[in-house]
Design brief:
The longest helix has 25 residues. Helices cover 53% and strands 9% of the residues. It has a three-stranded mixed β-sheet with strand order 1-2-3. The protein has five helices and three strands.
């Protein structure tokens, strides 16, 4: 079986779980963070909406330089409204899923290089980069559930029941 069809069910599950968590991001708390070294809630939520776009980059680009010489460096964005965050997530999920479904095994085996300032930081196969992006998303979604709990927002069931949602999702 080709690689892409084996990845799509997990992609769909993780994106649906991410959307459920992002639907609960409280309004007016974009600057809140649990510790001075922590990412603000608004940035964390925006990052989760951006990450499916990173999956798109993993399968459609051969490299990415987040501070290209002579070009503008990556600037983190903080979206203020839940509506904007969910719209960004939905756009990125749709684009990434379409690209993922169209990615051949040969394309997954190609090298992908992460660069900073024109310098290669690392090179991995596109499949490994894609997997790293999904893992990165899961990590930050877990962070978001802690932020939700600390703000007395009910935490959605993700892989099983939460203290707030006792039922299993179908």
């Amino acid at each position: 079986m080709p690689i892409a069809p084996t990845l799509i069910p997990e992609f769909d599950e993780e994106m649906a779980a991410t959307r459920r968590a992002l639907e609960r991001v409280p309004t007016g708390k974009a600057a809140w963070k649990p510790h001075p070294k922590s990412m603000p809630l608004g940035r964390l939520a925006t990052l989760l909406a951006e990450l499916p776009g990173w999956a798109l980059n993993a399968v459609t680009l051969d490299e990415l330089d987040i501070a290209p010489p002579g070009g503008p460096p990556f600037r983190p964005v903080i979206l203020e409204s839940g509506k904007e965050i969910l719209e960004l997530l939905d756009r990125n999920v749709q684009a990434a899923r379409t690209a993922l479904a169209a990615t051949s095994d040969a394309e997954f085996a190609k090298p992908w290089t992460f660069k900073y300032g024109g310098r290669a930081v690392w090179t991995k196969t596109k499949r490994d980069v894609y997997r790293n992006v999904v893992n990165h998303l899961v990590h930050h979604r877990g962070q978001l559930t802690v932020y939700l709990r600390m703000n007395d927002v009910p935490v959605p069931a993700i892989y099983g029941p939460s203290a707030d949602e006792q039922g299993f999702r179908a």
